[in-house]
């Protein structure tokens, strides 16, 4: 009996291991853009930018999907110095290979529309969503604020490796990378031939300008400092910076309507990063009343759920500033989640979250190929039983 139990357990672990291996897809090695250093297109510490490239094949050989890595931002010299010694500030600290899953998966069963495309994960090491460009380098800190140069150097490298022949192209990203995919959407389109079908996807990148639980303007102040530190203003949309201060032009609600390239917004209405860092950041909650709620939405008190419902309404108002356009896509679920394209279980699996009986991967694929438009906003929490609500272990974990 004991041997049978052990055999069953071993078999179960084997199946689980195989499932994890197959859903993650292949491990993809890193490529350093050494030529970028001479152009001053470098990470915070002066190291070269980097990306991971899984080459396309078959019908996808001339299709390119660029996924911009997320990871928050640094808004001043102190926070950038901390970041400089991590993989979010130095390519020297990056692992040499990473697994591709979700929208980057190389298996048709898990990524039916993009599995055989050229899939690239651009690593994030500048702390400004690829917008900064300060020529001077302080000899004391040795910090390089060169995100915009990094963006261009990586794109030029990929163009030289075949992207200039792209028939289809997507600029996508998650979190800070999702914001970058909005900020750089039209410039990405401009890099490619006129005949290329180009669209952009922003996953968990629609950060809104709202008051925190103390009534303060934490995120607005943060973005003001970020833009000033990185010299980002000249790389933000002139049509926005000409009518409002540059920090406000870091918010998608003030710029997304002006994006001419087709754009798909994927976002949880209760985005767990925004709840944790915009609505209830530590500085606005000194006594930690929100800590348990931020770890797991099931821990939230009725009064906190009410505040989060109000946040959802503010998010929807900010989102609807996009205006109506048949070319845009929208998948706004009511999950407590953040970044849903890169996680296989959220992108395209049997139990993935549904909106209008449709998985994210299916909605995006149909939208890109003009099979079917998708613009859906979920009902309020807790109405969607298919949600995978995020549960955090460490309240002091670094930004995702």
Automatic annotation (TrEMBL):
<keyword id="KW-0964">Secreted</keyword>
<comment type="similarity">
    <text>Belongs to the pectinacetylesterase family.</text>
</comment>
<dbReference type="InterPro" id="IPR004963">
    <property type="entry name" value="PAE/NOTUM"/>
</dbReference>
<dbReference type="GO" id="GO:0052793">
    <property type="term" value="F:pectin acetylesterase activity"/>
</dbReference>
<dbReference type="GO" id="GO:0071555">
    <property type="term" value="P:cell wall organization"/>
</dbReference>
<dbReference type="GO" id="GO:0009505">
    <property type="term" value="C:plant-type cell wall"/>
</dbReference>
<protein>
    <recommendedName>
        <fullName>Pectin acetylesterase</fullName>
        <ecNumber>3.1.1.-</ecNumber>
    </recommendedName>
</protein>
<keyword id="KW-0134">Cell wall</keyword>
<comment type="function">
    <text>Hydrolyzes acetyl esters in homogalacturonan regions of pectin. In type I primary cell wall, galacturonic acid residues of pectin can be acetylated at the O-2 and O-3 positions. Decreasing the degree of acetylation of pectin gels in vitro alters their physical properties.</text>
</comment>
<feature type="signal peptide">
    <location>
        <begin position="1"/>
        <end position="25"/>
    </location>
</feature>
<keyword id="KW-0961">Cell wall biogenesis/degradation</keyword>
<keyword id="KW-0732">Signal</keyword>
<dbReference type="Pfam" id="PF03283">
    <property type="entry name" value="PAE"/>
</dbReference>
<keyword id="KW-0378">Hydrolase</keyword>
